[in-house]
Design brief:
This protein is α+β, with helices and mostly antiparallel strands. The chain is 36% helix and 45% strand. A six-stranded mixed β-sheet has the order 2-1-6-5-4-3.
Length: 150
């Protein structure tokens, strides 16, 4: 009789465990690796001056604010950015992705990059914070903030 009760208890425990797993909320369809990959694709498109890919990764309502600038930039300014800044090399590291809901995520990372603008070379190390939103079934960059590291 004890063996039968133990078997019933184990069976009930397993069925409760399986039911609890089914009731967990669905995870966002964009895992950390997917958003990091999209971020890297954005930098690559900027470096290669691939405006079509760059535009496709940005939300239509995209805004940006770079340290030292006096105003916000928009999607058009970011897509035309490669015309004014040649991105020579870059390294992206320390990615952190924080879901803000099922259709939004905050991506932060460090970028070290080197480029040329107006014939002058420059180097920078910056912390980026970007808000990615799901729009039309795809993840798009909606907001970018760059802060220089001293």
């Amino acid at each position: 009789m004890k063996a039968a009760l133990i078997a019933i208890a184990v069976t009930l425990s397993l069925s409760c465990f399986a039911g609890a797993q089914e009731k967990q909320p669905a995870k966002s369809s964009a895992g950390p690796s997917q958003l990091e990959a999209r971020e890297r694709k954005l930098w690559e498109a900027f470096q290669k001056k691939d405006k079509a890919t760059l535009s496709g990764l940005l939300d239509d309502s995209f805004r940006q604010f770079e340290e030292g600038q006096g105003t916000f930039g928009d999607k058009k300014a970011e897509v035309n950015g490669p015309d004014e800044f040649d991105l020579i090399t870059y390294t992206l590291s320390d990615f952190t992705i924080k879901p803000l809901g099922p259709n939004a995520a905050l991506v932060t990372y460090i970028a070290q990059y080197e480029g040329k603008s107006g014939g002058e070379s420059s180097k920078a190390k910056s912390v980026f914070a970007e808000v990615w939103v799901r729009s039309g079934g795809e993840w798009k960059d909606s907001y970018m903030q760059e802060t220089y590291v001293k």
